[in-house]
Write the structure tokens for this entry.
Amino acid sequence: MSYEYLPTINRNVLVVVPTEGFLEWARKNPDDDVTLTLAELVADSTAYLIPEQDADAEGWLKRNFKAIFEIELDGWCTDPSLWPKDRSMKTFKKFFRVYYCSSVLDLGDGSIDREYI
């Protein structure tokens, strides 16, 4: 691959990294491993492709954090009755650090295939 012309994708990336707050919640779930470590959680963080944001990534997150919060919770516990009752932005920020990336370079060959979960 020539690095002279790298293809970009018209998306930004939002990386959601679990914190100690998320770990405490995850360890309380009946089916989870109480020996789970923060390092293990962080190593399996999730990256979301989001619409391009000129300068309002935080605004986009404020409008969409609930869906991301529920996706992250569901990844660890599929029973919503065991999720935190308070799923506010404040709790989201207690459970996750968020990083934004405005440049997305496609180093893969071939087309991008969508899969739905």
Summary: The mean pLDDT is 89.
